Each structure stands twice: as C-alpha cells, then as structure tokens.
Amino acid sequence: xxxxxxxxxxxxxxxxxxxxxxxxxxxxxxxxxxxxxxxxxxxxxxxxxxxxxxxxxxxxxxxxxxxxxxxxxxxxxxxxxxxxxxxxxxxxxxxxxxxxxxxxxxxxxxxxxxxxxxxxxxxxxxxxxxxxxxxxxxxxxxxxxxxxxxxxxxxxxxxxxxxxxxxxxxxxxxxxxxxxxxxxxxxxxxxxxxxxxxxxxxxxxxxxxxxxxxxxxxxxxxxxxxxxxxxxxxxxxxxxxxxxxxxxxxxxxxx
Length: 255
Fold this sequence. Notes:
Layout: E1 13-17, H1 22-33, E2 37-42, H2 47-57, E3 62-65, H3 71-85, E4 90-93, H4 108-136, E5 139-144, H5 148-151, H6 157-177, E6 182-189, H7 195-200, H8 204-213, H9 226-233, E7 244-247
Parallel strand pairs: 1-2, 1-4, 2-3, 4-5, 5-6, 6-7
Helix pairs in contact: 1-9, 3-4, 4-6
Family: Belongs to the short-chain dehydrogenases/reductases (SDR) family.
Protein name: SDR family oxidoreductase
Domain Ketoreductase: 12-191
C-alpha cells in the first residue's frame, strides 16, 4: 500500500518511541519515505531494521537504544535527536505494552511498570519536546492509544486505564499549548495484525469475531496506521487538535 505524500514533512525532525517494530516500524518507514529525518527508540537492537530502511528508502533513521520507562534516558535520547536532526517538530508516542493481566493478580510493581510504559513515558516525552516546539512557533504531537478502552475490554485493565488517560492528556495539552502553535492529537488503532499479535493472540476464531465487529471486513495491518499519522503530522490537518481518531475498521464510533 502506497502512502500519500505530504511535502511539508520533508526534512521534518521526527521522534518515534518504539519505532523499530510493529506499528512503530511502519510509522518510521512512512516518515522516512516522506523525506523526514527520523529518530526512534526501542529496547531491542534495531540495527538490521535501520540498514534495511536505509537501503529501501535511501534515508537512514537514527536508532537510540532506550528503555522509555527511564525518564532520564528518554530525555537524553530526545536531546541526542535534536542535536543530530534539529529540534523535534513531530513527536509520535507509540511504544506501549498490552501484557494481559487479571485484576486480582496485579501488585504495585506491575501497576507502576504498566503505567510507566503506557502513560508516564508519553507525558514526559511531551514535556521534553514542548519548549522547543513553542520556541519554533509550533509542532505536532501524536499519541498512539487504542480503542480497547472505548470497548470496555477485559483482560488488561491497567492498559485500558492508561489509554483512557492518554485521551485526557491529549485534550489538556492541546488546550494548553494550542496558543503556541502546537497541535496534539491521539490515534486509536483497532486490532492490528502485528507480528506480536499474530504470535500471541490471533487465532482464526478470534479474527473472525473481530471482523464481525468491523464495518470494513478486512484485517488491519500496521501500514493502515501510516496514512492517518502522516495526515495528523502534516499541515493538511492544521485545523485538527485535541481529537481522538479511531482507526479500527469501524468498530467504535466517536463524536
């Protein structure tokens, strides 16, 4: 699937958390093909992905190994990105972990870890990038969420709690920093067929049940998230901020 071209994204300094696998890898590739300067962080080595992107797109991303639950390390990675590519003008908070858990089995340590990766890191990435965006007269933040909390899904209550928090944070930051030209939106994917999802949870029965809920009867792939994110990052969406957009094939409705 070919992504639309947004000329204003060429040369943009883009920072993506979790940009080496799953949806994040598709987003990294999407921005690279726009001619953006892409940096991404992740915990696993992404050297092979970086080399492949350089060969396939002619545009080499900057990979920084980082645990985003370590706030100091995350801020250092963002500072390194700004030094290499110029001030970050597009932030994509994408990294998350939807590890399944039962409410009665959660202890404080698991709660703290899950909130740290699924919500806390989002906030501090925003906090880190906002001064430079204000100084530049504008910027874009896109927070990747999930429709799971809108569906009231069971099986990962801290994850859905964090995703609900992402929506609240998105709206508040959009209101606070809109006067400085900063737009903040959230994109909520549906069930996207990443390698992790297929390895752990996708079965023919589960997929059939999911498709029965979707208006569009096609399994969602990581590339399906690229167009919406590029649109939200581009000036083409300059009138859109403080919004949560569901990209789920039509399972939930918003508004």
